[in-house]
Amino acid sequence: MSRLTTRLVQALAPTTVASAHCDIPCGIYDPHGAVLAAQTVAKMVELIGALDGTSPADRNKFIRCVTVKEQHAEIVKHEVQVIWSDYFKPEHLVANPDLHTKVWNLLKLAGKNKQNVDAEAAAQLQAGVKEFADIFWSTKK
Hints:
By secondary structure, the chain is an all-alpha fold. It contains six helices and no strands. The chain has helices at residues 3-12, 32-49, 56-87, 90-95, 99-115, 119-138. The relative contact order is 0.15.
């Protein structure tokens, strides 16, 4: 590298090193997306349960509802994982020592909702996401 290039690189180099808890240090976290996604899973299960399945329109609606149910169960997983991995800090774990277990169970429950059409599992998913959201909001006080 020439002396001029070296001087230019040094002049343009940042003087402050920043660190962040996530890829983009926005600091904006909200479990609302997971809550809505869990509600959507439950609604799709309800709609699937109401189909008789004999008409082409019902078969089409079934396929569409299953697709949406699975997509939204995956959204639950993604939203919860981002908050769990990027937002929660050691002090939050002190206040909520079973948080890792609750998140692990919630992620497993989201997977169960992808695999099955089960109203009870959908209700459990909604309750688990609500509990996760409540824990999240309790850390904001």
